[in-house]
Design brief:
The structure is a single chain. This protein is 25% helix and 24% strand. The protein is an alpha+beta fold. It has one domain (2-532): FAD/NAD(P)-binding domain. Strand 1 (2-9), helix 1 and strand 2 form a beta-alpha-beta unit. Helix 4 (117-127) crosses helix 13 (515-532). The radius of gyration is 22 Å and the shape is globular. The two termini are 24 Å apart. The structure holds flavin-adenine dinucleotide.
Length: 533
């Protein structure tokens, strides 16, 4: 059995940061185990447009699906996740959005000491480097470079003008004082290249002699001696191995795999564990519960004129030209992320902070044989989502086999407030589309379509067609109530030598994308660990 001070499980948005930070001072030997086999040199993970080639690719993607239930009109929901160095930060849409002040203040109000906005802001600043916004909110010297998306089509100015016409202010830094307004998205892209934890944290760190990264190493269980974690078991190169952590193991396998690993190791709800004959080491009924995600419909419009959308540039000869443009100049739509125009709005005037996010794209997608590709039809689409859904689902093992996928059970639109906000999100998007100048260039609304008007029709449409924007969080939630899995130092309740640090620890979903908050969680976790030594 090989010996390390720390073992980090997973190299994604959180694990990549932790492995790099814990090896920085040279004092501690760290083993980072990553189930994926591809490194930061994987071809598609550098050009931003490569997301399209990774979102369904089993070589770098876990490709999980939820269990169909009535909340999604009995449809499975696709749940992708990065399976390579950098984890999901190496395949995602690269949107930078850390949510709002109130998200973290609410975590603190829920009893998570040290996690208010004021507490976490230094870690957000530490991880980024940007010239956007004010020094108070933004970091200038961190590893992840953040830039503003380019307007790759005349569509963007038309849409922004229409949003302004219905009253939204232009708000270039939506991570500043307020999120409310319309803005081009900020992105973790620099000079046309993706900034993942693999490229920005691990590539420089892996030169250190005290960091060992093992790729293709899938952890199957934690090794527990009584109530202490002393190491991990993993499969690599077709054989089983064990590694010992003299100080701690840190689970950063993501919101789907982290609760699975705890359950396989005897930490969780006895009712779940006994179903598969797993002895209970620590009873924690919250493991795998509190699953939250951003779910919403795709609203679609076609244009009456060509040249406004990116359609056509995504296929055939024009795609080849775009590729050449990217290779030569790192410009064009391949150098940009997705959902590059954002509106943050409120469901009612009584709501103080934006509770709806509109993610706007200047093209249409078609899904053929479960594969997404850019449509040739000129148009645009908007994901209209509830930013802070109350509805919770769960993730649990459905077999004692460590290589079997867990059951992902979403429960969308389960509360009156979520349904009301979801309906308002569709209406807010339609209000902008009905305003000039964008209204002048629209041919028709093709989804949901003008026949869908009542609240009940809209909810039905969302259940039948909605998808997530891939922000699963919350399944090993931080806190001190009976359903909490980790404390506010991210230590697993009742087990020594074990933390969870990734998207799964969020007690509530934040009103934004979840990669940067996952990096923040890891920055703070590394700081807490090093401060204790
Ligand atoms: C397609 C897509 C697009 C997205 N777009 C955005 C976006 O634009 N902006 C944004 O902020 N967020 C986005 N997100 C969400 C965001 O990327 C994730 O919430 C975030 O990366 C989660 O970080 P994590 O560290 O919790 O997990 P991950 O980054 O998923 O890392 C978990 C790592 O653990 C590894 N692992 C899992 N199980 C094991 C095991 N048993 N043994 C060893 N290794 C294991 C995985 O292979 C993976 O590398 C997107 C997500 C997806 C899927």
């Amino acid at each position: 059995m090989s010996d390390y001070d720390f073992i980090v499980i997973g190299s994604g948005s959180s694990g990549g940061v932790l492995a790099a930070r814990l090896t920085e001072n040279g004092k501690y030997r760290v083993l980072c185990l990553e189930a994926g086999t591809r490194s930061e040199r994987y071809l598609w993970s550098r050009p931003p447009g490569g997301t399209a080639f990774m979102i369904e690719n089993p070589e770098v993607n876990w490709r999980r699906f939820s269990t169909p239930n009535e909340s999604t009109a009995n449809r499975p929901i696709y749940v992708p996740g990065g399976k390579l160095l950098g984890g999901t930060s190496a395949i995602n849409g690269m949107i930078f959005n850390r949510g709002q002040r109130m998200d973290y203040d609410r975590w603190a109000q829920m009893g998570c000491r040290g996690w208010s906005h004021e507490d976490v802001l230094p870690y957000f600043k530490k991880l980024e480097s940007t010239d956007i916004g004010s020094d108070h909110y933004r970091g200038r010297g961190g590893p992840i470079k953040v830039t503003v998306a380019a307007k790759t089509s005349p569509f963007f100015d038309l849409f922004i003008e229409s949003a302004q016409a219905v009253g939204y202010p232009l708000n270039p830094d939506y991570t500043g004082d307020t999120q409310y307004g319309v803005a081009m998205a900020q992105q973790t892209i620099h000079r046309g290249l993706r900034q993942s934890t693999a490229t920005q944290y691990l590539a420089p760190a892996r030169k250190r002699p005290n960091l060992t990264i093992r790729m293709g190493a899938e952890v199957t269980s934690l090794i527990l001696e009584g109530q202490r974690c002393i190491g991990v078991r993993f499969r690599c190169d077709g054989a089983m191995h064990e590694a010992r952590a003299s100080r701690e193991a840190i689970v950063s396998a993501g919101a789907i795999a982290s609760p699975k690993l705890l359950e396989l190791s005897g930490i969780g709800n006895p009712k779940v564990l006994s179903r598969f004959g797993i002895p209970v080491i620590q009873e924690l009924p919250g493991v795998g519960e509190n699953l939250r995600d951003h779910f919403g419909p795709t609203l679609k419009w076609t244009f009456r004129q060509r040249g406004l959308s990116l359609a056509g540039r995504g296929r055939g000869l024009r795609l080849l030209l775009e590729i050449a443009r990217y290779v030569l100049f790192r410009k064009g739509f391949i150098s940009e992320g997705v959902c590059t125009l954002r509106v943050f709005t409120r469901s009612t005037d009584q709501v103080e902070q934006a509770d709806i996010g509109l993610l706007v794209n200047p093209f249409l997608l078609e899904i053929i044989n479960q594969k997404r590709r850019m449509s040739n039809v000129d148009g645009f689409f908007i994901y209209a989502q509830v930013q802070r859904p109350e509805s919770c689902g769960s993730i649990h093992i459905q077999s004692p086999d460590p290589f079997a996928a867990p059951a992902i059970s979403y429960s969308f639109l389960a509360t009156e407030n979520d349904r009301r906000t979801a309906v308002a999100a569709v209406r807010r998007a339609r209000e902008i589309a009905a305003a000039r100048p964008i209204a002048d260039v629209i041919a028709e609304e093709i989804a949901p379509g003008p026949q869908i008007q009542s609240d009940a029709q809209i909810i039905d449409f969302i259940r039948k067609t909605g998808a997530t924007t891939f922000h699963a969080v919350g399944t090993c939630k931080m806190g001190h109530d009976s359903m909490a899995v980790v404390d506010d130092q991210l230590r697993v309740h009742g087990i020594r030598g074990l933390r969870v640090a990734d998207a799964s620890i969020m007690p509530m979903i934040i009103s934004g994308n979840t990669s940067i908050p996952s990096m923040m969680i890891a920055e703070k976790c590394a700081d807490m660990i090093l401060a204790e030594l």
